From TrEMBL:
The keyword Cytoplasm does not apply. InterPro entries: NA-bd_OB-fold, NfeD2_TM. Gene3D superfamilies: Nucleic acid-binding proteins. The chain crosses the membrane at residues 12-29, 41-60, 66-87. It holds the Pfam family NfeD_TM. It comes from Enterococcus hirae (strain ATCC 9790 / DSM 20160 / JCM 8729 / LMG 6399 / NBRC 3181 / NCIMB 6459 / NCDO 1258 / NCTC 12367 / WDCM 00089 / R). This is Membrane protein NfeD2 N-terminal transmembrane domain-containing protein.
Amino acid sequence: MIGGVALETIYWYTLLTCAGIAVFLLVFGDIFDFDGPIDPILIVPWLTFTSLFGYLGERLTELDSLFLLISSGAIATVLVFLLNFYVRMPMKNAESTLSASEKTLEGQMAIVVTPIPLKGMGEIQLKSVTGSITRPACFYAPQSSPAKQGEQVLIIEVKERVCYVTPYEGMLKI
């Protein structure tokens, strides 16, 4: 007991408080961004796990309360480390889509799917490890002949999802 209150009760109210804070952080968690050595976002799950295992230990076993607190804290530390390393960090660094960003398309070769007229748009296809994508395309600079289906083109610039291309001629001739 601490101050006449059973440890089981303290663990229980800490668990309920942390659950409420976790729901709050689920909704508003993107607002908080901390780059220090200990992220405050990790303190809430640590307190939650510590209070959960402390509550269960007090309720189900006859072990010493200090031993339960220390072992609950150790288990919580391991679980929070694993959650941070294997769930939170990959999700934080992940992009929202598998498709390539427009800037990464510049400088790549593509194949003409729908012929590109001298003044107008056609369609090109880019193949990558994640699959293939098609994009509308037009010439970057005036050309003397249209691009036929199956020809290779080089993407020079991408604006508003439209690729500006030039015919690809392979190796430079000297």
